[in-house]
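Margin note from the TA: students keep mixing up input and output lines. Inputs are the sequences; the output is the structure of the whole complex. Example:
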Amino acid sequence: MKKFITTLAKFSLFCAFGYFLLVCVFGMSIPSYYSPNITSHLGGSGHLNSRIKEANNKAHVDILILGSSHAYRGLDTRIIERSGKSAFNLGSSSQTPIQTEILVNRYLSHLEPSLVIFEVYPSAFTLDGAESSLDLIINSRVDLPLAKLVIKQKNIKLINSGVYASMRQFLNLETVFTEENTNSSGTYISGGFVEDSVRTYRYDDYDKQRWDFKPYQFEAFDRILSSIKLSGAECLLVFSPITPSRYNSYTNQVYFDSLMTSKASYFNFNQLIQLDDSLHFSDSHHLNQHGVEIYNRKLLQVMDSLGLSD
Amino acid sequence: MLFNSLDFAIFLPIVFILYWFVAQRNLKLQNALILAASYFFYALWDWRFLFLIIFSTLVDFTVGYFLGKTKDQTYRKILLAVSVAVNLGFLGFFKYYDFFLANFIEAFRLFGQPIQASSLNIILPVGISFYTFQTMSYTIDVYRKRLEPGKDIIAFSAFVSFFPQLVAGPIERASNLLPQFYKKREFVYANAADGLKQILWGLFKKMVIADNCAYFANMFFNNYTEHPGSALVLGGVFFAFQIYGDFSGYSDIAIGTSRLFGFNLMQNFNYPYFSRDMAEFWRRWHISLSTWFRDYLYIPLGGSRGSSYKKVRNIFIIFIVSGFWHGANWTFIIWGLLNALYFLPLLLTKRNRANLEVVAQGKYLPSIREVMQMGMTFGLAVIAWIFFRSENVYSAFDYLSRIFSSTLFTIPTFKDRHIAFVTLLLIGFFVVIEWIGREHQFGISKLLQNKPRIIRWTFFTFIVFLIGVFMKTEETPFIYFQF
């Protein structure tokens, strides 16, 4: 038995080392689409690579925006800066609170905002966050909190990609990559916003559905709010508009609204502005630039009314 | 709890440590631990059905006890009938009730007498087809006086619910497995190491081969009307490897896990796709079920003895029952029927035992003739699998008719072709390893055994790597859990 345990322990070490070595070699030599569980290509549809590089070079902003694609495609820093304040959008694709927490811990003290606008799309609280973690792994640095998150998420794709990204980071290979400004999802605008070419959306019906929230996302959310409060910044929670047909299909919006209201200043823009499914949206839950204009102007009014533009 | 889950990766070492370190000196304690672990393992699916296993166990233990006490043949027959009725009753109710009801309603409707009856939408308890057959083998063997009745209820319960093979076999004979619960188990390094290797190979088969093939098999079978004949052939091949990787992978993990605890289970798959005819295929595919039917159904019916009529009848009965065992659907019955048709010419021309030895034994490569024989057998198996996989009989025939159309010779275009290419490469690797290891119990059993440890460990690490890079990120259940 002793021999078995010792040999097994030795093999485990050998296997772990060999495995990570093979992941690195495979990641460097085989395109990602042939190796489904190692994402080795930098960039991506959400422009997080460009956003992170820009955030690292920013010294200070007045307004920091957080959240999912609804943040970086819905909150145009150029419009928000009409309030006379500088703004930076740190949203990323399918970002859920567990990733937002990592970004807040990295950038809150660095960017020192006086206001944080946190886009709280309810669906983000229903996701496990694997997609967003992958985006962070390949486009930002892998540090201890991110590594811990990856281990917690128990997803082999994240582990493999994390190992590969760490190796690339260690060998300083990522600096040579420059992301294209325009890709299929739109054009990256300095400040973190991604402008979509104006597309319209064809109305669709939805069956009644519910958001099935994950408790650990709310736990991360509470920790984020505490960090923001501790930094002395104001926090504004916003729920960006989605198509009315989709919005009305959810049966637990009231619960979500009351929960958010209990946490901080919260505004559900689905109830504050009237938008048209076809004219103001590029898909069922993303605004096109016409919709963004209307939404952001209303947001500035709300900020004004709260005295947050002063 | 799935074998390919993190839960099992935690559960197994805990049970292993308790088994060999805490309960090592006490056989009863070891059996009790296996029983507790097995019930826990099963309860994670649905604890309510645990009562079904317990009830079935108690009935068969009691029947076995009284069979051992009496010599009265009538009384013995009644006892056996009780056991068979209880076991098949449960199986029939949970597995076939809705099927028979739906067919009765349809039959009455066809004869112009529509009847009203509502389906119960019964949930099928996981593993019921497997443990029911296992316990039935016990009572039948005790009835036939081939086995002494069990006297230790804990050991007997552990035999019925032994967690490695509880939900998808191999369906063990009581005469092989039960005595192993009565004698002290010794930890043997070579067996445990071999068990781990077999678990690794089973995980590769399931997580790399079966799950990746499943993606494409589902794509082609679910939307077969949108694909050309060439893609549908590919769909059939992918399904053939999916079901083999899935089920034989499960069996490998089950056998490997049992070895860690000092048990030896029977081999369930013996490289069936290297068979040269369908008779050989059936000696190599799901061996524990085939031999169960052979011993408890085919031979009592007369087997291959007697008139040609009897031979034909017995073959049809055994294959149709085998198909029906898989599920309450006409597709499985046609699948069984088709296999009977494949088998029959071999039996009637007395060529069903023509290929008893391993193909190309002692050689690196098969002859051209053997390649053609294996290709033909595989092709026949794939045609039968199309019935097995299709939603209904109409879809299966439609699928086949679309294969044999002018689109058979077109280059297939479909989503994720590059992943399909990688999957075919992985299948190629798998087939090569299985070919090399075809004379041994499992593919990598003796592979590189004479090479230095570093080479063996590098190979095993490479298998782990392939699993890590090509496994699906979501856990996928084993196909045979639904049977």
